[in-house]
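Action item from last week, closing it out:
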Amino acid sequence: MKHSSHKKLFGVLGIGLGLILLSGCTANFCSEDDKAQMAYPYEQGVTVYCTKEEYDSFKEANKELIALEETQNIAGKAIDGNDNVYSYVPYKVDSNGRAIFSAAKAKNLQDAVLENAYKSGYNLPSVKYWAEIDKYVLEAAMYMAELQQNNVVPKFNVEDATNVATPAFKAAVVVADPTESKWSINPYTKSDSDIINDESAILRKSVLRNFGHVKFSGKDSKFFENIKFWRNKLYGDLGRDNVPTEDFQTLYVNTIGNRVQNNRSCIATKDGYYGHYGTNANWEVAISRKDWGYAWSKGFLEGLLIFPVSWLVDTFAFSFDANLTGFGQIWALILVTLIVRLLLLGIGFRSTLSQQKMQALKPELDKIQAKYPNANTNQAEKARLGQEQMALYRRNGIHPFGSMLIMIVQFPVFICVWAGLQGSAALSTGQIFNMRLSDNINNILFNVSGAWYTNVNGWWTALVLFILMATVQIFSIILPRIIQKRASKKVAKTSVNPNANDQQRQMRLISYMMVGFTVIMGFMLPSAMGVYWLISGLISMIQTLIMQTLLARKPKQRRK
């Protein structure tokens, strides 16, 4: 018995380690174009686009800067043939002679890329370089916007010099707040801002909001190809001292790429805008529709389980709330959890029944163990104990290893449900009491900006969810032991049974290990998975109570 308990203990440890390892083994559904879409909100360039009045006002307050930028063809009219849009690059030169960009949109570039590059001793690209890159991006975005306006699938080939918007389209572009006949540049309420206006017209008609991601796309939508091409072109136009070095380019690509590489919320059943991206987590980006064929191309489990889970979440979420504001996703999670649990119950019903019967037979097992108190040291008693236990199992139709079958089935299902919820684009949108369902619980809990008693970023919501989830999961794990303990009190004990006591200690240790694993994993999971575990734990408790109650009503049948 002791050896068996040790095997169970190592089994729990192995499963925990396996969950951690396999959680990163499922494929990422994000396409190269999806990644480009997610990258642009974090690095939108350094150029501010504004009206003629705003430009003149800034020029009056920064005469030397604007004079220099006009000489370098950085500031002035942003679009040829358009008197509505002007541009400039706000920056200051520090005591070390480096440019510090001050536009709100450039914050991530300045803090995450340029600061680290400077600390690493890399040569920094010139202001002229960043301004020229912004010009390329705007030109490409306007070209793609015009294609879409003409009902043509917008594609851009950076190597084709004819890919430019027509003069008529360029002349119609404004800074913000477009009319029905015009397009805007800024997806913001103000020129120098990083706060998106909620008005859908501005979002629909912003060329940078919709097509700025071309900066990080390329031929066949290959990640970072366009900006690498432009960098090489500017190497010849501006000279090596103005463009990024290889080391800087590598740092740039890795820094921006890492912001999106770990994001998996790209399983969308319909084309649309999803997520919370950018330094202020206020950008929804276009994620392309994924179908079952795409899922099968990613792998066997991806097609068999992961995509169906995300498809169910999307279908239910859009049915409850087409705007995906948050509550629809909660109902979707509840229904998906019920479906998954019913599926698991159907697949492993006999094994689950055997496991519940073993728990219900605990008093009778205690009686048998009481007859052989020296089974740990006496081989003859150990053999007779094993024979009587197996006879009891056979009389009641129990398969002792049935619980292992349940764990074998649940293991890949848990991983796939986890991956499916992580990958769901619908869950990356909206929020419930300021808590975003795609964010990890630990990240939300530590994001306590503002007064501690406020719930600006949903940390109170995440805390309540974590406490409820952990409590329910803990009780669902220890509930069978509580039931067994109460039943065992009815068994008369004539002597101390070292064998039974040792087994109980081992089982308690296993329970504690499972509780610890649950709490740690729950802390690290996305909040959507926390909701799943909360509902799943409640179902487990109800299932245990129902089955134990039914089995307890038939003691005579169990003893025949």
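Closing note: The beta strands are 48-50, 76-77, 86-88, 91-93, 99-101, 272-277, 283-287.
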